[in-house]
Every structure is written in structure tokens, then in C-alpha cells.
Amino acid sequence: MELNMLEAKFLSLPKDVGFRTSSYPTSLFGIHSYPKSNSSKVICARVSNSATSNKVATSTLLFQSKINGINEAISRTLDYFDDEYGGVIVNPDRLPSNPNVFASLLQSSLSQWITKGKKGVWLKLPSEYSELVPMAIKEGFQYHHAESGYVMLTYWIPEGPCMLPANASHQVGVGGFVINDKNEVLVVQEKYCAPPYVGFWKIPTGFIHESEEIYTGAVREVQEETGIDTEFVEVIAFRHAQNMAFEKSDLFFICMLKPLSSEIKVDDHEIEAAKWMPVVDFVKQPWIQEDSMLKKVTDIFIARMGKKYCGLFAHHLISKFDDRSSTLYYNVVNTRDSNCIGA
Amino acid sequence: MELNMLEAKFLSLPKDVGFRTSSYPTSLFGIHSYPKSNSSKVICARVSNSATSNKVATSTLLFQSKINGINEAISRTLDYFDDEYGGVIVNPDRLPSNPNVFASLLQSSLSQWITKGKKGVWLKLPSEYSELVPMAIKEGFQYHHAESGYVMLTYWIPEGPCMLPANASHQVGVGGFVINDKNEVLVVQEKYCAPPYVGFWKIPTGFIHESEEIYTGAVREVQEETGIDTEFVEVIAFRHAQNMAFEKSDLFFICMLKPLSSEIKVDDHEIEAAKWMPVVDFVKQPWIQEDSMLKKVTDIFIARMGKKYCGLFAHHLISKFDDRSSTLYYNVVNTRDSNCIGA
């Protein structure tokens, strides 16, 4: 049964998630192209020999049905939606719980979808349907991604390169430089840290949540670790590192924050100590002086304090193409109060 | 059997992937704290009632063994490594293929790990072991993430908040402004695009690969779509949008690129047409004039062309803490050739 695409949202598959050639409405200048097939990671299942043989085998699964007095051969399929890009999304709310029934229906569905010239197949299996996972893998599906409550599997039908989009590739961290009017920087010592960092006073840092703004995340992390309320000023630099946790990459945004309170309340779970430290003492720390990365960031921070540096402000903008609000980080252009010369 | 941690790398679990309180050696200012338990997404399995009852049931799985002439009760476990944070990593190379054997061993392993005060359990199941997935779920494990060849499941043993780190939360896109010495900008029309974009000349865009630099990705995308070779100059702005594909977020970096060639070769697969377009014509397009996001980015681009704007350059730095090379994006400070006044 083919259902209307309108209901597909609950699948966590926005309708703009399709193939590489599909539109990506929130893209700044039109369309992102999805990752190329020459990506380091193949994210599609290929039509394997076993799947091909299934195409034949499934013909035995055709059922006779009498509709309007005419005998028609129709094959039963899993409940699914068509997506906008020639693919199908299996309805996770109407999965058969019996693995054998699922396996048969998956075979006959694939057979029909191949006949119909369908492209990618999205199969989201909630945790309570984990017994269906081996059936899907056997049929030629591959894991695409997983979250705590489900695993998503995919299958790419056509010959040629796989056009399905990859899942997220980066984690995002933030660090906050908070300076008070006594030229003191807010610093913390982590409770549990690697030997090189013991005794090191650092700025508060942390990961942002999956659906959190960079500026919100920086303010939250500082508040959680030190109890200090702050206001985001700007991103002064960011670092990009490859192959971090789970082979994904890491983006780390260094933010200037303005303190709105002064009394420190340390988060006992992860912070050993926190304090306001004179900037000169912060900079003098050997960890900073001896490390090119830390030294450079500190230089930027000092230049920013001296109003000799331009960072990127956060501006909220809504694109008319999708009515979606997003945040554009850019410098202030052609204004007298540019932070290059004094914010 | 407990093996040495040294071999854990093949698990794609760098040794710094542990719990929130563990060190994160490449963090710019020490330690990122892992996502808080009040994160929007719970990523750990909790010790469920069924798992608790399993703790009792597994006592029947103890085996008698005679070591040095003494009878000792030892329980069999899955092959695993200790990680540095009090957790265990199940060895994916020595999984029993029989699901029933696996289920029994998982139960007795959990029982032992609980007794030993272990914390998180990482269970990586390659695709060929998909039959073990339902067994792990039944035992209380939850999906953590998946890639095409495997699914990773986790289990959090202690009372209290889950401290396991989340998987990647963002996808990263790039767009390239390429200007030649005739004040023409390199633009493309996508082959397949949503109705609002039909006829829109846009800059080349795309996602970066999982282990690719922003500057490399921008140059690659431009080359793939148009055949034009370029050199990265700087990031002039970036956009952050929430809840995009698969509910993850999106970071999009707008880059200035310098052309190194001029002859256009269109990528037939995804690009309808590409050309060098006078900047005045590019800006005049109604799509840009009527959309606040596109208009702002174009303003920034024009300001940058007029050398009245500061972007962020890419600098390669190695931190002495981990000998890892990463890229720091920042503006040029205190130099006469700052791009604020003319690069």
C-alpha cells in the first residue's frame, strides 16, 4: 500500500533527505550536493548476487486477488511511502513483528520496487523490532546510522554510484573566554584529566547538544561548570580536527563571552576548581607558552581584548525559501563600531 | 579473558573515547566534557529490570575449573578489553557466531562486569553478526551509532547519569565564491532542484567528507562541479542550522577561493550548467535580493572583494599534547597585510 508522503515526517526523514541530486532547501546558495560516491565511506548497500536471486525468488510470492471481478496478480509489500526522489521509506509503524513474515514481505517488496524503478530504500527499525535486523542484512541492506531507539538501514537499487546522503560527520565543541572588568579570565581545572593537563587552568569547554546553537552551548557550558552567567559576544576562531571519536571529525569554536555575574559555583561532578585568574598569569602558564595551538589561541584572545582582532558575530536570519531560522556568523562590515577597531 | 588495551585501536574507539569525565587530549584548552545527561537525547542503555534479573540468572552459568589444584568458580565471558575509564570494549574479532552462545556469554559477562564495578560496555557488531543484535537488545543494550559495516551498541551499568559520549551531531557543507580577474563569479545551475531554485545561478556547494578539511572540500566541490581548479583563501562566514537530515544539525562554511584555471567542464551528473557570471548580474538575481540570508552573504562577499571585510584563514598547527595536526581558522592579527584592509 502506498501512502501519502505527507506523513513521512515522523520518520525523522525530512522530505529533503533523498538522493544527491535532490534539492536541499536550506542550503545557502541553493543546493548542497550529497557526498560523492568516491567518499571514503560507502554508505549504500549494493544489489548483491543474493539480492538479485531474490528478485527471481520473489515471483513465487505473488498472490491471486479478485478485484472488480478480474483476477490480478498482485504482490504483497511492506507498508511504505514514496519519497520525492524516487525512493521508498518503509513505514516503521506497521512492521510485521514476525521475522519470517517480514523477510518474505521484504523480498517481495524489493522485487516490486526494482520493477517500478525505485532507487533508495530507507528501513528504520525501532529497537523493539531488532529481530528484523538480521533479515534485512541478509536481504542486502546495510546499516546507515543508529540512535538510541532505532537503527536505520538502506538499500540502493540502481546500477551506478550510490546517491544516498551520509549521516552526520562532525561533533561540535565550544570553549568560552570570559573576561571581567579586572582583566581576569574565568578558568577551571578538570576533575579527571590526562597527566599532561594536571594543574592546568583552562577555559570552560564542552560539546554542544545535537540541536543547540553554538552561542547557547558556550553560555551553557560556562554556567554549568562555574555558575557564571554570561552573554555571547563572538566566535574568535575555530579548530577543525580529523578522525576523533568513532572516526568522526571535530569542530571546536572558541567564543568570547561577557560575564553577567561574578560568584563562582563549581560543578562538583567534573570540575575540580574554578576561579578568576589575572590574564597575565593565565598566559604565563607553561602549557600555553610551550604549545603552538594554545599559544596561538591565547594570542588571538589577547589581540581581541586589545580590540585589534575581528571575530564573527551571530546573526539570526530566516530564508524565504524554507522559512527556517538559522544563524549566520560573520564579521561586522563597514561600520564604525566594527570589533576590528573596538567593540 | 582480559586483553591488553593496546590493541583497542582497531575497534575505532580511540582510547580517549570513554566517559564524560575522561580526558580529551586534542581539546584546545584541555578537556571537552562529554554531552550532559540532560542532553536532548539519551544515548545509554539503562540497567533494566530484565537486565537486573539476568544478573541473578547468570549465576547458573558459572563453571568449575581446577587451577593449581584448587577448585575455583569462574564465569565465562565474551572476549573483551578494559578501556581506560572503567569500561569494557567487547572484542568484535572474537564474537561467537551462534546467537544462543552469544546470549549466554553476554549475560555472564554483564554479571561479571557488574560485580567488578565496570561502567560502560561498548559492543560493536559487524554486519555479518547481525543475528546477535536482537540478543544484545534483549539484554538491555541500546543502539549508539552505526556505519555501513557495523552497528555499535552500549550499556551503562552504574546508577546515575549516563556518561558515554554521543556520536557525531553535525554535517558540514561548504560553498565556494570563486572570482576571476574580470570580476566574474563562478556559478552553477543544479540539474535537479526544488521549484524555488529553478533558473537560479548559485555558487558551487557540497558536503565535506567525513575526514576532509573544509578548505580541501571547498576546492574539491568546485573542481568536481565545474572543472575549475582553485586555491582556498579564507572562510568569510558560516551558517548553523538545526534539525536537518536525520534530525542532526548543519554547519555551512562560505569560502573565498582564487581560480587557478578558467576553462569550465560541467559535471553532467548533478550540474545543468556552469559559467563565469559578472558579479553585478549575480547580485541582481531576485533570489538574492529577496532573501535575507542570500542577500547578507552576498553583501559580505562584495565587502570582501572590496577589501573591507575580515574572514578567517586556515593555519595548520600541531599540539604538543597529542602531536596531532589540526587546522585553526582565524583572522590575521596585527599585520599590515591583514585582509581587513587588503589581502
Automatic annotation (TrEMBL), chains A, B:
CDD domains given in the database record: NUDIX_ASFGF2_Nudt6
Nudix hydrolase domain mapped to chain residues: 169-299
Superkingdom, taxonomy of origin: Eukaryota
MF-aspect GO terms: ADP-ribose diphosphatase activity; metal ion binding; NAD binding; NADH pyrophosphatase activity
Keywords, alphabetical: Hydrolase, Metal-binding
Alphabetical list of InterPro entries matching this protein: NUDIX_hydrolase-like_dom_sf, Nudix_hydrolase6-like, NUDIX_hydrolase_CS, NUDIX_hydrolase_dom, Pre-Nudix
Family: Belongs to the Nudix hydrolase family.
PANTHER family registered for this protein in UniProt: FI03680P, NUDIX HYDROLASE RELATED
Protein name as catalogued: Nudix hydrolase domain-containing protein
Gene field: LOC110732384
